[in-house]
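To assess whether ligand presence alters the predicted conformation, the chain was also submitted together with BES. Input:
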Amino acid sequence: MWEHRDIQLLNVPSAASSSGCAASVVAVEPSEQTPLHRVHCAGSVLAIAVSARHIYAGTQSGDIAVFSIETYDHITDLKGHSRCILSLVLSDDESLLLSSAGDAIVNVWSADTFERVHTIYSVFDVGDIFCVAYSSKLSTVYFGAQNTSIQWYDFRAKDKYPRPSIKSHPSKRSHRFFDSLGPGGSATPQPPSEQPGLSYNESDLIEIDPSSIVQYAHFGYVYCMLLIESSTREGEEVLVSGGGDGSIKLWEIDSTTSAIHPKESKSLSSGDCGVLCMATRAQFLYCGLTDGEISIWDLDSQTLIRSIRGHQDDVHTMTARDNFIWSGSASGHVRKWSQRFELLGRWKAHEGIILSSAIRTVKGKDIYLSGGNDDCVAAWDVSSQEDDTPSVHRTTEDEMHSALRTLVSFRTVANDPTFSEDCRQGASFLKSIFRQFGAQSFLIPTAENRNPIVFAKFTPPESTVETARQTILFYGHYDVISAGAEPDNNWITEPFELTGMNSYLYGRGVSDNKGPVLAAIFAAGELAQRNELTSNIVFLIEGEEEAGSRGFKDAVKRCKDFIGPIDWILLANSYWLDDDAPCVTYGLRGVVHASVEIESDKPDLHSGVDGSRESREPVIDMVNLLAKLTSDRGKVMIPGFHEPVRPVTPAEEAMYTAITKEFSERTFNSIVPLGQLQAHLMSRWRYPSLTIHRVNVSGPTNATVIPRSASAAISVRIVPDQKLSAVCDSLTEYLYSEFSNFNSPNRLRVSIDHASEWWLGDPENKAFRTLAKAVEEVWQKKPLFIREGGSIPAVRFLELEFGAAAAHLPCGQASDHAHLDNERIRVANLYKSKSIMKKVFQELPLDG
Ligand code: BES
Ligand code: MN
């Protein structure tokens, strides 16, 4: 709807435009765009600056939120303004950040230490400071304010001026209105200002000298400002300012004193609309005005080239890079323009008003950032598609991110035949990634109606490896648990659309196990591309893990010769103990899934007609039978069940002590009270458990019918040294023998649907040593050695089949919500897991 209206509007020449030009529409990029990421801030985002490492978001609260440009992690909040931030700029070398705000102050921050190094203010009541510009060459700060002045401070001359006193700081001065004396001669009492970060060190204060002020620089607020290269005086800069009066002024700068001199001939008028924002590229100046107007000036000839109606509402931000210009407006839309101001694209970037934007090329990718009154910053990849060799510039992180986006979009739910085509496409997609990295790859069929295994092998070229070559096998899975059907699920994003939010990527399977699988593939792929592989790396990525790895064993056995000998097994399919401490996992429980069915030879009956003290109802039998499985306190009652459980050794105890110690150093976030932690973890990791998943009954389930049959699904998690087959047998036998004591005419059927072995690795072997070292190098923290209560059927099988030991790297955090709504993985965990696996792939085969 809006699209249609938009184009119409665009083609109507603006009444206010002096040249009468309308924007023309050429091939327009899609209006739907997915941001790379969105981060939430504490309030509207009125200003953005971006460096090679950080995104700075100036908010309404006066805080500047700092995020990592790579992982979007929230790093810190710079607290030094008591009112909304209005402008942020960086010095050329990105070592200084300058902020201006509604509190009449300009702060200068170190972009390395995040310390506030200076606070600059004027002795005049300047009101809001809307804009700042910084000349790195002259070490001079210029700012434009609500009282229509432009003021500056030259750091080169800082010894010339006496040190000001805190008393003259705007927050300490009395306000003509609010602080005037009331009846009786007393002023309204003010609470002391105790806001953190708002206390001042006198030595950091800078007061503007009255000689460094141009009063009435505009006949209106000074909204925006920037420095450009002078076209007449080589190597010198010109200050450009835009005002609420609709004029744009050029100011020549005296390079010795930093003073600015207006040149009346260089005042460009835009008409009635206020100039809200500006951007330059080459000799062109692009101005965003109130009422949707965009004017383009040639600064060399100082003429207005075009004026178009770019938006339907106020143009709040303007950004230029290479051959493109982006404008953002009050309706929340961003528009992308060519140099000739043809509309190239438009998209809705914010639910609300766009207030700020910035652009920067980071590791070969052009990132456009927009900030809005929906309290968020959105990051958009606007890298030019016209680039001849786009992939050369993209980092493996970018490639991995877009591969994950595609992989998540395949609904690879193993248990549901509706999705078998998605599974096949997901598998083919993985195969194509392997092949792009130069690995040999194909699909291994499993069983009929079962999903294939993706096989791949990276082989280093003969010349690069002298010693007998080892082989590492990476195991993972591309199938996922169902995301649930609406409206019963509570996903805050589309489960099969990768969504970046607040430093996490959301989507079904991102943590279990698609993200970690891609991290491993890209780790191996990157080594292969750089000729740094030291061993063969084989991948077996199956599509039936969540369904108990159906068909996996047979398929692997069939292909065993082809797969060849394996020295080490690596997997990455579990989570940290909490959200902060990196871990390595050396144990998993096994699992037995069983179905229990009890049926009578009668049909469903009416409970009023047929309910009697003589009838033996299947559901009552079921309830009584299930009750035999555990004591009233939940202890599993299967005979001989607990005896084989391995006793705790001192070495094992030490592992738990280390974990308890780690948590005792925390002041928050402990999972349970410290005194209970060891028992809590042991009961989940090294002791068995039993779960009743569901009990179903036949018939209409209303309160008048006796169901003719009942069924139940139960599972048992098993641990060292319980024997899988013994548990299956004793569970079945126990149920039959207890049931026979009931003397019921009903029939019982017990079946074992799935059984998988527990796994216990050797935390002292070379694989774990290499893994732990790599984790420590990448996270700068020694990992905790943990076990897990969950199960992965293939691990023990692969160890036995290939006679190789497995090591397990948990990539995700405890709060990843695997199998649940809103599954996610932190961007930093994904990228760092790739780095860890790269190190392991490289170092594990080496001697030592
Ligand atoms: N990644 C999990 C295994 C897991 C779960 C590890 C919890 C650590 C903690 C795996 O994908 C999974 O869901 N396994 C199933 C296996 C079952 C379907 C045979 C499980 O544990 O229930
Ligand atoms: Mn799982």
